[in-house]
Amino acid sequence: MTKFEVTTLNEFILKSQSKYPEAQGDFSHLLHHVGIAARIVNREVNKAGLVDILGEAGEINVQGESQKKLDVFADEHFIDAIQGCGEVCAIASEENENFIIYDDEASRNGKYVFLMDPLDGSSNIDVNVSIGTIFSIYRRISPVGERATIDDFLQPGTAQLAAGYILYGSSTMMVYTTGQGVIGFTLDPSIGEFCLSHKAITTPEDGTIYSINEGNYRKFPQGVKKYIKYCQKKDAASLRPYSSRYIGSLVADFHRNLLKGGIFIYPETESAPNGKLRLLYECNPIAFLAEQAGGKATNGLIRTMEIKPESLHQRTPFYTGSKNMVDKVEEFLQAYPEEKRNNKKKSSIAIEE
Ligand code: AHM
Ligand code: MG
């Protein structure tokens, strides 16, 4: 008879605790609560077409975008579930202008702060396309017992203790890192548990997928335009032309590229010099995962996780994925710095437009 071997998220967290002393009890407890919130949000995402939860909630969020009902649902449930663990003193979310300080006694003594995009890719909600939750955890720097401050949140990505995402896709997955590699769990709906499915995720050094919203092509920096042409050019040795794949959900696009090898780009443009994606709760957690899987994440110039945060909702250009692909696009960005945009200077890696 085949042995029944399933490791649930909670079992895995407990085992890691004894293996790595740094995965202390309180921290494990927090990850356990992330799993609870993920299951609650997943339940709603899965019945989204059945109940009155699709569509606009009627509010405009801090980014000036209209909130979807599921955004609000996910935001509120994550805020509650994270408070429930009593280990987090304050939480910041894409959906709220300011961070929220938990006021109960246990949370006041919590050692951690939690940042999240509770439901990323929200334009995909109404059309049954994959969406995700992204989270990032830091040790607070303000004294335990006092009120959390903005400085607890404005730490560089290199200080992250853990980061991950939940992907509500054809199956629901939770993928996270605590700095010891990347682990993936798939939700088994029949038992309601996240089960270990990807023990140590590593991303290929080279890939054959590029992911970018090419509709914005005319607005891209010259280096990005040249890189896209490079991806499309035939070259048997490097398996080009590459495939273009873009869902418009960061978690789903990143997850596919993580497993298959590829690059995700959301660049700066003239009208949006810092790009679209947010440093603290979108790019830094994804960057931590990318690096832990052997990939790379930069703003085109420096490592994403070394950017000094200045505000909670700060945006940054984002280039992430297979290491050699990110290196290559950086080469193009260097060869075509923006001052060359209007003068057709020759480059050693010139590609015809
Ligand atoms: P959101 O947080 O408002 O959902 O926006 C972030 C999303 C990412 O998931 C995705 O990579 C990007 O926006 C897509 O943007 P665009 O439609 O401009 O390509
Ligand atoms: Mg988002």
Task: Kindly describe this structure.
- The structure is a single chain.
- The protein has 353 residues and is of the alpha+beta class.
- It has two domains: 9-198, Fructose-1,6-Bisphosphatase, Chain A, domain 1 (2-Layer Sandwich); 209-342, D-Maltodextrin-Binding Protein, domain 2 (3-Layer(aba) Sandwich), CATH 3.40.190.
- The protein has helices at 9-19, 25-46, 69-85, 105-108, 150-153, 222-232, 250-260, 279-292, 323-335; strands spanning 56-60, 66-68, 88-93, 100-101, 112-120, 131-139, 162-168, 172-177, 182-188, 193-198, 209-211, 243-244, 263-266, 296-298, 318-321.
- It has an eight-stranded mixed sheet, sandwiched between helices. The chain has a five-stranded mixed sheet with strand order 12-11-13-15-14, with helices on both faces.
- Helix 6 links the parallel strand 11 (209-211) and strand 12.
- Helix 1 runs antiparallel to helix 2 (25-46), helix 2 (25-46) runs antiparallel to helix 3 and helix 6 crosses helix 9 (323-335).
- The protein starts with 8 loop residues before the first helix and ends in an 18-residue tail after the last helix.
- Residues 340-347 have low confidence and may be disordered.
- Residues 94, 117, 120, 282 line the site of magnesium ion.
Strand order of the largest sheet: 4-3-5-6-7-8-9-10
Query: H/E order of the elements?
Result: HHEEHEEHEEHEEEEEHEHEHEEH
Taking Cα atoms only, what radius of gyration do you get, to the nearest Å?
20 Å
- Average pLDDT works out at 90
Which kinds of small molecule does this entry bind, naming each only once? 2,5-anhydro-1,6-di-O-phosphono-D-mannitol, magnesium ion
- CATH top level of the largest domain is Alpha Beta
Q: Could you say what the CATH topology of the largest domain is called?
A: Fructose-1,6-Bisphosphatase, Chain A, domain 1
Tally of separate domains: 2
Superfamily (CATH H level) name of the largest domain: Fructose-1,6-Bisphosphatase, subunit A, domain 1
Total strands: 15
Q: What about the largest sheet?
A: 8 strands, mixed
- Under the CATH scheme, the architecture of the largest domain is 2-Layer Sandwich
Choose one word for the global shape. Answer: globular
Fraction in beta strands: 15-25%
Q: What distance separates the N and C termini?
A: 61 Å
Relative helix content: 25-40%
